[in-house]
Amino acid sequence: MVFTKSYAICRHSAQQNIKMNIPDKRIVRFIKKHHVLSLSTAANNEPYAASLFYLFYEKEMILLFASDTHTKHIQDALAQNIVAGTIASETFFIHRIRGVQFKGVLFESLDETMRRKYIRRFPVAHFIPFKLWGIELQHIKMTDNRMGIGKKIYWYKD
């Protein structure tokens, strides 16, 4: 739910968005504006995190990134394909903090069109052998303190 000064209007709007699986435009705009995510995984009760360049597919609600199969984060994710992560902007001012936390399902992408788009966006990937991975987003929680300290916007896939 979105909690702002006009609670009733935003509450209704958020419920419609959740029901229709349409994310709030502020979430989409924020994810599109950035290009680095922090991926969190765990295996054998040991957490791990990795920073990765990503490409966002809005219609499918997928974050696409490149990584080698032998990395710790991919090995962890292959053992348990549910992953979590964050995308954040940096600021020194608490009232300007913005970011998203997400949870999703990891999958390997064999789509050549996606691979070409990823290389076009991050040309250095052309020179490095990699596999393409996607995170099918299931849940997003966005914090945007510009709306008021601690205000959240939620999106759920189903």
Overall description:
- The chain has 158 residues and is of the alpha+beta class.
- It has one domain: Pnp Oxidase, Chain A (Roll), CATH 2.30.110.10.
- The chain has four helices and seven strands, in the order H-H-E-E-E-H-E-E-H-E-E.
- The longest helix has 14 residues, at 7-20.
- It starts with 6 loop residues before the first helix and ends with a strand.
How do the strands and helices of this protein lay out in sequence?
Elements: H1 7-20, H2 25-33, E1 36-43, E2 46-57, E3 62-67, H3 72-79, E4 82-88, E5 98-109, H4 112-121, E6 131-144, E7 152-156
Antiparallel strand pairs: 1-2, 1-4, 2-3, 3-6, 4-5, 5-6, 6-7
Number of helices: 4
Q: Which blocks of ≥5 consecutive residues have pLDDT under 50?
A: 1-20
Annotated CATH topology: Pnp Oxidase, Chain A
Helix content: 25-40%
Shape, per Cα inertia axes: globular
Structural class: alpha+beta
* Beta strands, count: 7
CATH superfamily: Electron Transport, Fmn-binding Protein, Chain A
Please state the CA-atom Rg, rounded to the nearest Å: 16 Å
Nearest-integer average pLDDT: 86
Please state the oligomeric state of the protein chains shown. single chain
Strand order of the largest sheet: 1-2-3-6-5-4
